[in-house]
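Trying the structure run again after the queue cleared.
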Amino acid sequence: MDVVLNHIVKRFGRLVANDDVSVTLEAGRIHGLLGENGAGKSTLMKVLCGQLAPEAGEIVVDGVAHRRLTPDMAAHCGIGMLPQDPLDFPPLKVWENFALGGGPVLPRAAARKRLDAVCARMGFCLRPDIPVSDLTVAERQHLELARLFDRDVRLLILDEPTSGISPAQRETLFAVLRAFVSGGDRLVALVTHKLAEARELCDAVTILRHGRLAGSFAAPLDGQAILTAMFGAEVAAVAEAAPPPPPKAAPGAGDVPVLRAAHLVIADDKAVLDDVCLEIWPGEIVGLAGISGGGQEALLRGLAGIAPSVAGNLDVGGRALAGRPATDFLAAGIHYLPAARMEEGLFPGLSLLDHVRLAFPDRRRKAKTIFAERCVGKFRLTDTPHARADALSGGNQQRLLLSLIPDDTRLLLADNPTRGLDAASIAQIWDHFRERAAAGAAVLFFSEDLDELLAHAGRVLVFYNRDMTADLPAASLDPGRVGDLMTGRATAAGSVS
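Done. Tokens:
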């Protein structure tokens, strides 16, 4: 199967998301699609799988030209997409979700038989009778892949497929993708912001920049050349530079922790964390490791005052906060950056300038100056103060949220702060977090990217099955061990199951 996108143009109002983009995807290869946030990668893939109609251009599948594809036409051509967040029904059982994978709905016996066959062929292990809500992120991903493979997909599009899975699960996924294309008649299109993964997995990559084609490269991939195509030489040098060693804040005489929790019990909507005992010191950057749903998100929300503390003690800056309203947490200098930026962090219908006025109510009359100096000047946010927040790319949404953090923040809590962002945006975020730590604040963050945890955290707290199972200093951080701890294959004492 060969697919060619010829001179694709896709507009959203005055924004040209894809501007005369031509890409050739050859059978038997894993083809990467890279670019900074807002470069047009996801838009181009949505055109390819029929979710969006282009204004101009054509899609050629096995020599047959189409002005556009609908989702049904794309499925008929053998094109399927695995989104970043699996599209499933958590209350339903695994086999029921599989039966709803497209085409006629399968009866139970047929669905289970075909699910078993696909799992055997791809090396998956899915229990058909448990609810999808009990699956890990990686298992939900396998279920989505099983549905696509059952439809005999020949072009598999994946959008950031390694978010939320362990290193071992990532290697399993990579092995599946290599096997998928090994016959020479199928291909994979991989949308990713992780250059290291593209270099490891892809046979070729295409770079988009500001909606236009910026370069194409074949393996072996030159990382510096790719970054230069994505960002330009000056920004690429910053993105490629190795991060400095994580800060190792050690309490000195007379120091007191920013945060002290003793036998704290946090009751979130989806999880209860019991008997949390923890101290965080000024200047520390502490990472949280765990499979999504392991309890680390509940800890962040509890420490932010969003999830209630129902027992135990929580002290921040000398204030007892357990059981107190969220406004008391804000007054104590705690700031929370949510993973769901638009749903929980921003107001979609308000302008960027409105957000500045809300964040700094005592300086409302200087909102334009704050926006120019802080948002645009310091954080490189797009200079469109009257644009709505929901018109921003993911990277610009995060830049806006960063620019709204109060200067007197003592404890910064961040849930997946770099998820889905490009290398330049990631470097900027970590520069800012280090500045905060150097000024005496503490940073506590959860990342689904284990490499990011190991690169930036001076200490890692590991969660498994809604329990904090290990507290590891930077000197003892090993990717294999952390991965085993967060998936339950090992205990803090060192045994492996």
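The chain has two domains: 3-240, 259-333+406-486. Worth checking whether this holds up in the mutant runs.
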